[in-house]
Design a protein that fits this description.
Bound molecules: S-adenosylmethionine
Number of domains: 2
Order of helices and strands: HHEEHEEHEHEHEEHEEEEHHEEEEHEEEE
Strand order of the largest sheet: 7-6-5-8-9-10-11-17-20-19-18
Mean pLDDT: 86
Number of strands: 20
Strand content: 25-35%
Structural class: alpha+beta
Largest sheet: 11 strands, mixed
CATH architecture of the largest domain: 3-Layer(aba) Sandwich
CATH superfamily of the largest domain: Vaccinia Virus protein VP39
Oligomer: single chain
Radius of gyration: 22 Å
């Protein structure tokens, strides 16, 4: 039985919604009909009665000064509606500090990211889902549509004000099968499981043992898992005392806060700038060609693929394709043809970046999806963070990883050791 929503902001939003769904389908960002259908039905504007965004087209706001928008019929309401239905735009909904200039505590992810993650979840009517990070409640409403009245969604939000607003929005649009819980989602939702699906919508330094414990045996958990300075969306299935997994796609999320905050295996997860004069050296031609090769949906995924290996090889990885140490930085330029570096360690970092690029070529330019991975509980559990880091070719007794001819990498997290290896093509 389709949900009947109350009055949206008018026909304009319905038309914009159709246009957004057309863009998502046309660009290949989302192919699943059920997901597209749900996104065509849930009124996104009802979940963001006000938000902050920079509008380059109308010249409103700037990187440090986002503009406050209110969808609807008031001043700038039409333009706000358009921004709400921009398939590629995330919207800030809660500031970390007193002002939105300080960074975001919460944002609604861009529709292309939301839709892609829903597609990866392979939801079916009647399933029970745990969402960590309710935010606006928009994704919870989509989950609710996809599992239908026979299914149930439990959504946890750390910030009580956001949780209360999201519950109101969900109620207002007629979602009856979502329970919003205020709490620290790293502990999961004791007493609410077992869940067929767990989906986390914040960037996580580690996998929570509780998410795996609260899952049904054939369940699926989707986590934006910290990897260098970004969060590949990682699909996990419980296995033994841990999980088996695979990175599915590149992403960047706001960081998880609360009890799941951890010291990271990488030294500089945040943005790092250049200090002092820049020097440049060309990347090997074959690497530049591989980086510039168009991918089927026009994504620049090869950069992320090389960045994935870089974060396994070097704990100084920062951003996607950069290494940083102290006040020195080396990064692959946007052109994909050269490495730009600055600071005292410029030459050493630049050479190391080129070395990893050459290794990537020698390995056959693996994609992030080509690595199999397993997660085994650390010993002792919740090991002190001083041992965090990444190693290569460490002896591994992880299931499936033994004897992988192209080596095994281990990311030493706090709750789990993550082993990764490249599977041989059949
Ligand atoms: C990217 S936003 C989520 C967007 C949301 N799914 C939506 O559809 O609007 C991430 C959210 O995770 C919340 N969060 C951060 N740490 C959390 C934790 N430990 N437990 C629960 N929620 C958390 C933040 O407050 C924020 O609202």
């Amino acid at each position: 039985m389709p949900l009947v929503y109350g009055r949206a902001v008018g026909l304009d939003c319905a038309a914009l919604r159709r246009r957004m769904v057309g863009v998502l389908a046309g660009t290949g960002a989302v192919a699943d009909e059920a997901v597209l259908c749900a996104m065509g039905r849930v009124p996104r504007e009802r979940f963001v009665p006000r938000f902050w965004a920079v509008d380059d087209e109308l010249g409103m706001g700037g990187p440090d000064h986002p503009f406050e928008w209110q969808p609807g019929e008031g001043p700038w309401g039409d333009r706000a509606n358009e921004l709400v239905y921009d398939a590629d735009r995330a919207l800030g909904i809660a500031a970390l500090g007193a002002s939105p200039w300080a960074g975001w505590a919460s944002s609604v992810s861009a529709p292309n990211v939301v839709g892609h993650m829903l597609e990866l979840l392979r939801l079916a009517p009647g399933q029970r889902v745990l969402e960590v990070g309710t935010g606006s409640g928009y994704n919870a409403a989509l989950l609710s549509e996809l599992v239908g009245p026979a299914g149930a969604v439990t959504s946890i939000e750390l910030e009580p004000d956001l949780a209360a607003a999201a519950a109101e929005h969900l109620e207002a649009v007629g979602c009856r099968n979502v329970e919003v819980v205020v709490g620290d989602g790293y502990a999961g939702a004791p007493g609410h499981g077992p869940f067929d699906r767990v989906v986390v919508t914040a960037g996580c330094p580690d996998v929570s043992p509780q998410w795996l414990r609260q899952m049904a045996p054939d369940g699926l958990c989707l986590v934006p898992l910290q990897h260098g300075g970004w969060h590949p969306v990682t699909a996990l299935r419980p296995s033994g005392r841990g999980a088996l997994g695979r990175a599915e796609s590149p992403a960047r999320f706001l960081p998880l806060r609360g009890s799941g905050e951890r010291q990271l295996p990488w030294a500089h997860p945040g943005p790092v700038g250049h200090h002092g004069p820049l020097s440049a050296s060309p990347l090997p031609r074959a690497v530049a060609v591989a980086l510039l090769r168009p991918t089927p949906a026009g994504h620049d995924w090869a950069r992320w693929d090389l960045g994935f290996l870089l974060a396994l090889e070097d704990s100084r990885a920062v951003s996607v394709l950069a290494l940083a140490e102290d006040r020195s930085l080396a990064e692959v330029a946007a052109s994909g043809r050269e490495v730009i570096a600055s600071g005292e360690q410029a030459a050493a970092l630049r050479d190391r970046l080129v070395e990893v690029a050459e290794l990537w070529l020698a390995l056959g330019c693996p994609r992030m999806q080509d690595y199999a991975m397993s997660f085994a509980p650390t010993s002792p559990p919740g090991r002190p963070t001083a041992r965090a880091g990444t190693t290569r070719d460490a002896p591994s007794d992880m299931p499936g990883a033994q004897g992988s001819p192209r080596g095994t990498w281990t990311v030493h997290r706090t709750d789990y050791d993550q082993a990764l290896w490249l599977e041989e093509a059949a």
